[in-house]
DNA sequence: GTCGCAATACTCGGATATGTCCTGTCCGAGTTATCAGGG
DNA sequence: CCCTGATAACTCGGACAGGACATATCCGAGTATTGCGAC
């Protein structure tokens, strides 16, 4: 997993705390978390394309949540940033004996090995899809939202 | 996930089918699956170090299963090949506002974001640990073992 | 005031370095079986 | 028949090259707000 996932999730939580009265520019988020601004922008754009965030261009523009926190699952964020492809890619190794001279056979689909690993992968995805940004907000300590709302605007971007 | 995982699992299944009367050299496995021999060796060595396989040096040496298939979980193979580190690494982004001028706070440990993702990661690991190579053998089609035993020795390494 | 115009502050998308890790190869050292030759 | 030594067949570990992908930066284009000046 790239670290972009961590960035994305923390940005979502922060945006939720700040509310969506007015959009937050990337420069501020980058300054807050001490991240490279240009690169963070790329990641946020990916979240916009997935509908997790919405962006408003122009002066006083920036990013805000694309929908309420209860409807943003961790799976949404991970999928948007890491890309849609699964972590286990079956290259059909099992068929290669044919290249090496063995006679062709009937193979069940999918490959048993691939199916087994994918079962685990589905558990991972299901667990991610079962948690929302709202859950993260609920689990955060009491003063966290206030602390953010108080000091975020003061950070020099 | 690197493709080494697929290699490792298929090799385990094949080794199980071939039985452990006599060890199987890497060159044969590589020829069977049409894989780069030197690189496959590296992966098998990792499995040996984890106890999944055992190796016998010298002429007529090679690899065989390190323990019965029922006691080799998919987690064992994945951990041996992919390494012990978790896929999500928390870099404690949440603390960085302090660097940017915000006052220090008390943070719960672990970070809520990290905990949420790790919960999903645990589901993935649990699912992998719940399946063994023996399960893969049981799920394979009827003739697969025979087919392998018949044609494997004929492949020119 | 208000209309128009320029400057500013943002996002968006693409092009481009840089770095890190996965993939793949090679070589030397150690270990064991096999085999040939001499007693 | 047995002992000995050489050869061959393997694993093991490290060093190293190449390429793919993640990381990071920069620039031009588009868009909205703000502010200024003229009427």
UniProtKB/TrEMBL annotation, chains A, B:
GO molecular function terms noted in the UniProt entry: DNA-binding transcription factor activity
Organism superkingdom: Bacteria
SUPFAM superfamilies registered for this protein in UniProt: Winged helix' DNA-binding domain
UniProt-listed Pfam families: Rrf2
GO terms for cellular component: cytosol
NCBIfam families: rrf2_super (TIGR00738)
Protein name: Rrf2 family protein
Organism: Sinosporangium album
